[in-house]
Each structure stands twice: as structure tokens, then as C-alpha cells.
DNA sequence: TTGTATGCGTTATCAT
DNA sequence: ATGATAACGCATACAA
């Protein structure tokens, strides 16, 4: 362990008896303009010296680093980790480094990460978190994104956003509409909805879909049936308890994502209510656990993995003048947690 | 959007009417040696010009970037995302950028990431995946880590490893021993164990603990009761089916992690076996879903979050001559999935 | 095909 | 306290 000096390309070049330029071409250049003989000498020297390239110097020289930053709301949320898997799969073998940024649903932190990625001259920024309804925040995000794009960066958005750029758009509204239609078709009329954070476009879109289903069936939608959650398991549990505490007696509960549905399941169990015998329960997203809980959750399958892949693929294509939108369908998955409203009960 | 030129510190300095050095001191230097007046001029100019620092240039000049790399086996596995939360929390506000590297349990990819982080001159590498029992791989990891440390990097390991360095060590053996003791105390003798990947030290340690519990009770441990899994939910499901397919009739199943236990639960349900009436089931780690499945899982609580925090705290302390080890206890959590062996059954 | 020389944006070491 | 200038390690335009 005596060699505390860092080995640079110059060292490699000297050792191989070639110029710095040639060494550079061999080690990193996409150029093939080096004779096999010299190439071998350089590779050999690099190995002997245990040369490790300095990515920062490369990024500085090239004015762009090989980093792809992905901004998510919560890395522990299966919704995002599934998307990440897709992004990763599509980025495999491209030599790009995936940088995962977790905002914890904090808009402030989202802005910080945007600046950070810009500072690192990332090649691409993928924003996987839902767009916000907060006007000031949208402006701030737009400003940062503009600056980033002007500097030569690529931006891809997942879900509806207020920034114009390439986007992958899951059909939240259509999925919710189909889901609620199914719930109504099972005879339910006393429906409670556990909503998401009011400032997210995902929440708005899914609620919209629910409303449309009521309209489709010629029923009136009572806004009071919505109780807010924040997309976390805990909030689903709390919201469910709150529901009963305020006297509601739904025959079906619709959680706007699976995590909250799982929380709701726990709450219902604590209250001694059986699903779906006493009350039906449905979620949204179809994350892996949805099939593991008892009873298995009826939900809307959003192909998270696929969405991540598409996003990454968009990112790798050169920027176009206008912006492209890739629409992704979402379909209802019926499982045990949704039952017919018992005819014996009013 | 006309300004496609990138703003540099030189631009800021010129605009503020000061030298590059002064501008640098104001924007990034820890130095306080700048008059309030000039400082304000620089800050103002930077804001007007929308200056964004070039992190690559900084890293090159400082010979070290502000990146902390965390290597995990699977970002979607709650075990790791919980650890990540802890790391993140402890790193909050330090200006360090968290880089999450997902190996998908592929040793080859682990090596690649090690090189990548070295290339980016990361300040710290945290390896959260369990150590391997594969000798060749350990040597390769050791070589890379040595080079990284020699170059001035910090390394912190989570779980037992064959590399000497600062480490956070959860008590896998003790936890498994206590868990198995509990299982035996409930009267179970026909016990099946769903093991982890044979090359992971975590698997070895937990199995060891199980063996010790048998010895403690004066019972002989039959190695044949172990069936291999790979720590994934799917493998837990498959292993359980395999168990019955080969004719085993355990009264209790011990999965060496919760994910596999959840999979086992699904398999048992498919087979019409009730838990814990027909067969008891326990897991390990106490990830969030453990409490959400039905019945709730008896398991061993490993304070994942805390482990991540400790790791990050260790990382922020300067390297010491010897290496430090932070031991973390694990304790059994009794929930509904573990029952007494029915006396009516043989 | 190979080598020479310059620039990338900052930090840090000197002077002043 | 402030300014001039030399690294930092690499890619690349240009020359040979």
C-alpha cells in the first residue's frame, strides 16, 4: 500500500511510450484510429498501473458527464422503485450512471436536486414524481429546467407536468374511471375515496376519473366522500379510521394508490370489518404487494416498469423541436378485495 | 431562451468587478476572508447571471467530489430502502450527493460500480450488501477498495465483510438464535428453514444462529431441513412449494428474511394451509410489510434505519488507523404467525 | 495513424 | 483582504 499517488493518463502514456492523445483515444475515445499494436501497449500499461479514469476531468473536458439523474418522491415506495427498475434496464450497458434522487415529497428538495444535477452537468434528468399544482413551484421548476436544457441537457417527465418536454403519460384518468365503473357495477353506492395530496396532478387526474364514472352511470358525485391521504401506508390507515370516526358507513373504499389501500386494510382489520364481506376495498398502481395481502387487492395495473423503460428510451433519443408524449394505458385488475354489495344490507 | 452560453465563475467575477479568486471564495470557499461589500456584489452578480457551479470542475480542482456512493443489492427490497433512508437522514444538509448503486445481486456489477465510484472520485463508498463467501470475488473487491482508500476515499461496510474497514454489524447470529429458540419453545420440532443465497455471509450467520438454538435446546439439527432461496419473494413462494413437493410436513417454517416469508405465505394460502393453525411461519428483518400481511409476521427486528444512520455517521468521521466496528442488536418480535404446535397433531 | 498544444471551470498558492 | 496564476486530468482541433 505504498502508492498513494494517483495514476493519470499521462502516466499510462509514458509507460506505454506513446503520447497522451493516443492513450486517451485508446482508453476513452470512440475513435478507432489507433493501431492494434499501440492499443495493446496502452491497455497493458493501464492494467499494470491500475489506472482508473477520472470521470470529473472527462466531464469537464467534454462539458457533459455521463450521469442520468432520476428524481423520485420516495425511493422506498414500490411505485417508484418499479419505475427505477425499468429506467435501469433500458439504460443498461450505455455507460451511463444512474443517479437516484429522493425528494421525500418535499418541493424544496426537488429544486435542490435540479440544481445539483445541473451542477454536475448531468446528461439527462428524468422527473418521475408527479407534477405539482402549486403555481410558484411550477415556475421555479420550469426556470431550472429551462436553464438545464439551454446548457445542453435532456429532460424527460413521467406523468403530467406543467413543463413542456418529452413525457411518458400513464392514463390515470382512464384507469380511475374504469375502476370506479367496476365498483359501481358491483352495486356499491356508498363509496368513500381516500385521496392523494391535493397538490399533485396524479391525485387530480384519478379523482377526475372517478367523477367521470359516476357521471357515466348517471349518478351524482358527492365531493364529501373524499378524505385526503398522502399516498403513504400510514395515511391510508389513518384516513380509514377517520372515515368511521366521522360516521361514514361505506360499502366500498377506493384508495387512490395501493400503499394507502394496504394501510386501509390494516385499519379495517383492527376494526373487525371483513373484506370484502363487510366492505370492499380497491387500490391503484398494482404494486407487487397488492397480490400478497389478504384478500388480494383489486386495483389498476399501471405498467411501472414499462414506463421507466420508455422514459429512458426517450431520453436516449436526441431532443426534438416539439416535445413527444408517450401514452401508456392502465387497466383494471380484479382480485378478491372487491365484492358485490350484499343485498341484505341497505 | 437565447443565452445558450454557460455562465462561469469568470463571468460572475467580471460582472461583479472582482477577481476570479474572490468570486470563488464567495461562492464556494469555506474562507470568510471577503469583505461583506464585495461578497454582496458577487452574490448579486451570480443571481443575475443565474450562475450554476460546475461540480465537475470543482471535483477536478479539489481532487475529490462530494458524492457518497451506496451499493445495495436491490433498491426495491425494503431491507435496503430502509437502510437508505437512514443513510440519507444522516447525510442531510452535509452538501453530499447520495448516489445509489443497485447491483441486482450481481457480483460483477458490484465490481463495476466500485470502479465507477472510484472514477468519480467519490468521497465515500458504503457497501450495504452482504459480504460474499466467494474467495475470488472478495479478492477483487479488496483490490478495488484498497485502491480507492489509497486515493483518499473512505469506505464503510454494512454487515460482515472480508474487507477490513469501518463496519456496522447487525447481530444476525444472535437474532436468529433467539428467533429459533422461540420457535422451539412453542413446541415445534419439525422445522423447515428457507435459506438465503449460500454465498452470502448473512445467510451463514443466520443459519449459524439457528443451529445454536438447536444446540441450546439439546436437539440435533438436521441440515436437510434447509431449502435454499435467494431472499426474493418469489423464491420464498417456490421454496415452500418445493418443500411440500418433496414430502416435508413441517409444523413451522423459518424464512431467513421477510420477503421470502411473504412469498411463503402466498404459497401456503394457495395450498389451503392456515397460518398459524396448520403451520407456523416466521421471517427476519421486520420490514414494514411484515406487520401488514395476514397473519402479521413474527420476525426479528433489525433496525435498518438506524444502521444506515450509523454507517453515514461513521463515514463522516475521519478515517482511523485501525477500523471501527459498530455492533447493532436485533430482537425478536412476536406476532400472530407463530403459534404453539397443536397437541392434537403428532 | 500519431503527436502537439490548448482549453474546460475551479481551487489553491502565491504575491501584494 | 484581494488579485494573478499555476495546477487539476482529460479530450480534441490541428499539425505532422
Short characterization:
Two copies of one chain form a homodimer. The first copy, chain A, is α/β, with parallel strands linked by helices and 346 residues long.
Describe this structure in words.
Two copies of one chain form a homodimer. With 346 residues, the first copy, chain A, is α/β, with parallel strands linked by helices. Chain A has three domains: 4-61, Orthogonal Bundle (434 Repressor (Amino-terminal Domain)); 67-169 and 304-328, 3-Layer(aba) Sandwich (Rossmann fold); 172-302, Rossmann fold (3-Layer(aba) Sandwich), CATH 3.40.50. In chain A, 43% of the residues lie in helices and 15% in strands. The first copy, chain A, has helices spanning 9-16, 20-27, 36-49, 55-62, 78-91, 107-119, 135-150, 172-185, 201-216, 233-245, 258-270, 304-316, and strands at residues 67-72, 97-102, 124-127, 154-158, 166-170, 191-195, 226-228, 252-255, 280-282, 299-301, 325-328, 331-333. Chain A has a six-stranded parallel sheet with strand order 2-1-3-4-5-11, with helices on both faces. A four-stranded parallel sheet of chain A has the order 7-6-8-9, with helices on both faces. The first copy, chain A, is elongated, with a radius of gyration of 26 Å. The model of chain A has no long low-confidence stretch (mean pLDDT 91). Chains A and B meet through helix 4, helix 5, strand 2, helix 6 and helix 7 of A and helix 4, helix 5, strand 2, helix 6 and helix 7 of B. The first copy, chain A, binds a DNA duplex (16 and 16 nucleotides) through helix 2 and helix 4.
